[in-house]
Amino acid sequence: MWFIYVLLLFSAGWAFAQDDAVRYLDALERKYSALKDYTVDVRVHFDMEGFNAPDMQARLYFKPPDKMKVESKKVFFFPKEGGIFNPFMFKKEAFDIRLLEEMTYDNRKAVKLKLYPKDTKKMKQSFVLILDIESHQIREFHTSSEEKEVKGVIEYGKFKEFDLPTRIELHLDLPFKESFEMREFGQPAAVPQRVTGKVEISYSNYRVNSGLRDEMFGSPKKKK
Amino acid sequence: MKLVWFETVKTFSRWRTYIGFSVIALIVIITEVVMRLSADEILYRMLRSLEKDFLISGNVLNGWFVTAFIMNSLHIHIPFLITLVAGDMVSSEATSGTVRLLLIRPPSRSRIIAAKYITTLFYTAGLVLFLGLLCILLGMTLFGSGDLIIHHYGRFGIIYLEEAEIPVRMLLAFMAAIWSMMTVASIAFLLSTLAENSVGPIIGTMAVVVVFLVIGNFPLDFFRSLKPYLFTTYLTFWQRFLDDPIPWQQIGSAAAILGLHSILLFLIALGVYSRKDIKS
Lengths: 224, 280
Known about the structure:
Chain A is mainly beta. Chain A has one helix at 2-31; strands at residues 38-48, 51-52, 56-63, 67-71, 76-79, 95-105, 108-117, 126-132, 137-144, 149-159, 162-176, 193-208. Chain B is mainly alpha-helical.
């Protein structure tokens, strides 16, 4: 009998913890619900082995839930994962959420959540988020799938009523497999390798809710 | 100087001299037009390994990229076009029966051979410069300008050269390509002094280039150990001007090795020509 009591006690505790975890994501979603779009100038600094490039600049346009566009006069590389601040991607309905830890982050109350996608065909990676629960900000994120890992640390500034990133530091660990069939005579086929390094992205000149139209993002590219 | 001028006029009055220019023009025009028409496919093949993780925007497939691409593709074929003229330079006198007439006139044999060699180098430089100018001008017209992205095959290696610094680097790369091709021209020139017809030097030079390239690229340790001793290893040192930072030491040693080859080959040609028996 005592075993059932203990089990009930634990399962009740677990259920409350899950409720809390959902509430934190819900609060995040509500906080940015009035964000209709934003435009920002980004400056990207690559510190990656094998990536020899100067700092790159571009203008980035974003519209929820996931429309984005980059404008640059020069050739511009931008990490797909973690570079675009999108608070709408963590919808509570899309994930099984687990509260990993309650903690203090920069002297503020925070929680560490683990998010498992419900539809693994649509989204392959799981996420770990550190959420500041006083200001409802994602302070760190960590995505991992079988192949790749991306860690990010976010610093915020206030733009209109929104907290938006002023700097994101990404740590990438990605697989790289050559796909360009042309190679010089005698060169052996390429061996898959890892690409690791740090990418620092600075964000400035935000323009929020300026009424970006859907047409400016164009139609999504068909995959070949 | 007068001799060089005579040799240059003689060389450029032969239709054979223009085969190289015509072939290059044809190849470059066809390649660039096809690249323009299949730009999407090229970009997809070029960037798909990177586009999984990076968003890439801007004019990646621009005139500079196309120029580097064609240069990379043609560095094995250009030597053949050079040998068409360099291999004919001295032997054509024997074939046409003008060698005795030429050598009984006042200029010394060494001056005559030097003039012919300078003309060969002039033709070589002209051919490579023609390739470069055509690639760049047509490339800029069809693809526009932009930053140059160099992607090393077989490893994650991206070099990003800003548009402003590309013209100087390209100029240096083409000068290095001319320097490399001068070595090939010197081989053809030497063989030309040894032969009585033009076919031998042309085939001979190509045989040397192809055999050295094959030996140098065999994926076996024995052949790999020979690679530093083959001049063909250094023929593509022009590519280093598109590295970042530019490996000056590597470029310097490659240029010195190729330069020594050219000088040595010319000196042998000079020796052979000075002792050439024209009476038989």
